[in-house]
């Protein structure tokens, strides 16, 4: 019975240590959940960028005369406006596609996201005539598409610009 006085409060100390260990574990789990949420947002934005880029490439493939004439070249979002509900010539269709793509950039990507398309016929052995362009020949030049957006990496850190660059032949 002499030791009974020394054991008072030991259970309370054990409980406090257990609560401390449990709290540290919860803080770690909360940090992992926050990191997972940021990673999900990053993956979402990259998926949107890929979808938007593929969408514009398909638009360009459907209007090769517009690509040959350089009507898709430029910086986006832009303020072009063209209604093609009644049909369009290749240049008008390119302006309509630019308008639609600019709208997608504004809708699906963070503010201040920008894009650039540059198509060149450099290196071609034969540049088609205007009549050949209207016959929709295959485009032998190269196009470069670059999409840039700002993505937050870590809480309280400086947001980092991300870039998607793609070189293709429509």
Automatic annotation (TrEMBL):
Keywords: Membrane, Transmembrane, Transmembrane helix. It comes from the Bacteria. The chain crosses the membrane at residues 12-36. InterPro entries: N_methyl_site, Pilus_4_PilV. Pfam families: N_methyl. NCBIfam families: IV_pilin_GFxxxE (TIGR02532), type_IV_pilV (TIGR02523). This is Type IV pilus modification protein PilV.
């Amino acid at each position: 019975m002499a030791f009974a006085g020394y054991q008072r409060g030991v259970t309370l100390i054990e409980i406090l240590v257990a609560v401390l260990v449990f709290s540290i574990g919860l803080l770690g789990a909360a940090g992992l959940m926050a990191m997972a949420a940021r990673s999900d947002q990053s993956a979402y934005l990259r998926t949107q960028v890929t979808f938007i880029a593929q969408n514009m490439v398909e638009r360009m493939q459907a209007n090769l005369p517009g690509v040959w004439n350089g009507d898709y070249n430029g910086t986006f979002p832009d303020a072009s406006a063209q209604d093609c509900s009644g049909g369009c010539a290749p240049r008008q269709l390119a302006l309509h596609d630019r308008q639609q793509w600019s709208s997608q950039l504004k809708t699906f990507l963070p503010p201040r996201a920008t894009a650039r398309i540059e198509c060149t016929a450099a290196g071609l052995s034969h540049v088609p005539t205007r009549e050949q362009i209207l016959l929709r020949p295959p485009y032998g030049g190269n196009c470069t598409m670059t999409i840039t957006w700002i993505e937050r990496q870590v809480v309280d850190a400086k947001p980092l610009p991300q870039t998607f660059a793609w070189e293709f032949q429509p």
